Amino acid sequence: MAQPLYERIEKQLRRRLDSAADGDPFPSEPRLAEEFGVSRMTVRAALAGLERDGMLERVPGRGSFVRKGAAHRPVGVLLSFHDQALAEGKTPRSRVLKAEVRAATAQESAALYQTEDEGEEASQNSEQVVAITRVRLFDELPIAIERAVFPATLSALLTTDLETGSLHNALRRLGLTPTLGSSLLTARTADDDAPDLGVAATTPMLVETRSIVDQHGDPLEYTVSCYVADRYALRVDFSVSQPERS
Questions:
Q1: Whether the predicted model's global pTM rises above the 0.90 cut
Q2: What gap in Å lies between CA 35 and CA 19, rounded to an integer?
Q3: To which H or E segment does residue 141 belong?
């Protein structure tokens, strides 16, 4: 029995993907249909297997891109998005959605201003924060929406390069070194963030709520990063606890 035409095309495309790099643009359906001299329906059937296996991703309004597995970051390492992109051979880029000085929310005030001794007093004041919301991209692929806030004394961050630069490098230039952090990991769907990420509203998201202190132990950054789950992962290394000997 002859092999279906779409399967033969799929095999050729798989071989082509073997030599492609993660994030490379992939030809459109019309272009492939012309190349192979078949209908778009046949091409669509050939592409379906590649998408199912995670080898190809279609981004609405942008086209199809080669996928070689989700980017991942070791949980125990404080590595900025900018530096991680460079380490993986990607170009870090950001699309700024909002950058301003505004009143802090209760959670932001607690993270950046309150201490155990002055928590009640701080909560009664209207604290200000530098708030920067960006879509973070590896090359042209949206990976996450990052909502970062800093103490209001760091308003100089608003004049830095927020599209191609690193905020952590900007902090270092201001004499502040991100040193220690803690994260809480949760999950949700993309919902209202979907249009900015080019995904469906029901797309699973990995949410990291992170607090970072500087070299003096003072609160420096409070960030909520929402990652498209199949484009980004966190790697956990651990030891296995041994049972106590009786």
A1: no
A2: 19
A3: strand 141-151
